[in-house]
Please model this.
Amino acid sequence: MSAKIKAINIHAFRGIPDLELELDGKSLLLRGENGTGKSSIVEAIEFFFTGEISYLAGTKGISLQRHGPHVNFEPDDVNVEITFDPGSVYLNRTFAFSPSPPEQFKDYFQITQKGTFILRRSQILAFITSKPADRFRTIGSIIGIEPLDEIECEMMRLRDDLKGEIHYEEKEIVRLINELSEIMGKDITKVEEVLLALNEVLQEANLPLIKSLDDVDKHAEEMLRTVKKAEIIDRIGVLNEIVGETKTALINEEIVSDLTRLDDKVKSLLQEHVKLELSIVDLLETGQKVIEKGEMNICPLCKQKIDRERVLAEIDTRLKTLQGLSENASEVRSISVPIIDKLREIADKLNSINSKIDSFPELEEEKIQVAQAIDALNDFVDKVTSARDLRNEIPIQAFNQQKDEINGAWRSISTKCRQLLDDIGLTEKEKRVLSAVVLIGQARDKSNDLSMVHSELRAYQNQYEFAEKIFSTFSETKKAKIQEIYNSIRGDIQSFYSMLHPNEPHKNIELVVALGRRASTSVKIESFGREEDPRALTSEGHLDSLGLCIFLAFVKKFNEDCPLLVLDDVITTIDARHRENICRLLHRKFGDKQLIITTHDGVWYEQLRASQRAYGVNGNFKNLIIVDWNVDTGPIIRPYKPRWEIIQEKIVSGDKKGAGNEGRQYLEWCIEKICEITQAQAPFKISGRYEVWDLLIPAKKRIGDLIKDGESFKTIILEKFMDLEATIIMGNLLSHHNPLAKDVSIEEVKSFCDRVHELHQVFLCPTCGHFINYFRDLKILRCSNPKCGVPVEVKTR
Amino acid sequence: MGIQEEIFGVFFKKLEEDEKFPNSILEELKILWENGEIGSQEKILEAIKRGCENVSKD
Model:
């Protein structure tokens, strides 16, 4: 036996100081005007199961801790208790305590804790009118694939990063080849050509040749021994190294153009809407640091207790989502990797040269410049890194200026070191030897670097190939599975929609995973032979009912083990005829669930009440009405009373306006019902909202045309219509802001209400009290209750 | 079986059927999934690296 809610007790929550709702496992139908606490009850149910109110989540300046408690109570007072059957299991939730369901309710709670059993008016259109990515998220939360989205994002980020590393290594190879070519004075295309080129230079300088690149250090050492000034050989060696290293400019134009390209992409992402999300990133990161460092479990804003681990986990998830803003952000991440690596490499070179010039007092000024350059470069790397995370633009102009200063210091080191070498007074041959040694050293270093970069590139390419395979396979599998799920509920969506809109030219409703995007869902519907976005060809009411059908189809598939379904004031734009179809859909397809339906709409409430009788399930429902609300009492709830009983009470108490309003609503419902059963032809109104006179005249005419002359039933009905028309002005006077209302007596109002009631009574079967129905094929009006012992029957034309 | 399990089941099967995809990486990925660590790019990269090492050893 599945779990059912037996009772709900709400204390100090939202608009409710104290409320006890005894459901006894039945469904609840609750009517109340706006602002009488209907939604507070739904929010309390949501809070009990999920610990949250999704309606408040993400709303600026609003928090559950501050705005969840009733205004006269403290957060610690909040308590929502629910008793479940079977077993009268009592569970409760406060801000500090979560319910621990027993084993037999585990499945129930596993689904309800996601909150996907509740549909609100504000959510209904999320299935239809929201952006494809938001729609995907909404659906994702119902079908439980949100964590998969994050996993897919991580796989994509890894692929992007590896792609960036590959680009960097490829550029490094080009740079090293170019530098080798420049050093050797001829075009080098691969490392194997270096030895040959080196020996050509040595031969030209009349110096001994090298057999293998592995021997270059030994060879250079032997050549240096031929230099006379052996006592300063180390100094010469260092100067030679510096001269070799500083031969080419440190920062070339290529990196500036790479930075400019990256900055252009960053700028395009730093638009207003992205900025807003980025400011949220800042806020979240600051919050993360505060909560982490302080190990705090109290919210610094509202001073309420928080679940620290959960908040940190949620911040982390949100940050990850925000960082993956778009494909462009992905590209920015990818192209920034080699640029940042390059800048770090430049800083490393400066560090290396700084340690080498340390023993030369002649280069004191350059030492200071290099130290400053290193600091400036490190700062700049930080700026590029934060630009990669879309927090700022890249200060290209400032970098250009720094670049010139750094290259200036670099050149100055080179010039001074050459001068120092000249001052040592070497012979021409010694100079030739030294330049050959420098050349050999540089060729060795670059060749080693080139081999290393080649090896790194192969590793990255290998890793990229697998990372790409992992991402694309996962992404395809996920999309295919989700599409499979969409396809599996397609029949239900179509069947539900057809139940609501029979004989209408809308078919082939489809949810489609967008192939080109990572997480996106579009909705298609075929109308008038064209496949379109539903917004293109259907009315607001149709969109509402389509959203409802999609939600219900997901509920049917994924909330099978949860017999609870809450619809909070969802029916507003759907007209009366289609609402009856919704009743049918709910009773036929979701009759096994415990429904909690709230509404402010009296007609929809009556329709749901009538449908309970029609489907023989009135014993399964608690029909309640919120008659009043104030801050001290909360919602005052009474059992449903038939409208006629309410009208009589109001008449007895002398409430002219109240009785008049109820009487007019009673009339609207009655006439609509007569039009519907007799298939009266009312003029079509796009809004779907009809005034009394729009329907009264067609109803009367239809009765006159439909029922054969001489039938006493016809005479009685037409008399009742005439009686009604004589008093109908009372209803008008009292239901509008009419200055004459004060002149109407309670007797006159009573007379109007009595006429409506009499008209209603004529259409009820005298045996069983069911409304009569029109059976066109049989050409009769007959009691609609198939079990009626002596059904009323009237012949028609 | 939940949808997540179903998707990962198909995902691993596809990789298994891919002759070019090393079994060693697949096994590493399965361990990550079982340990609930597959939602981290660092862990996936480590798995690829370890998998590649094992391929070299084989």
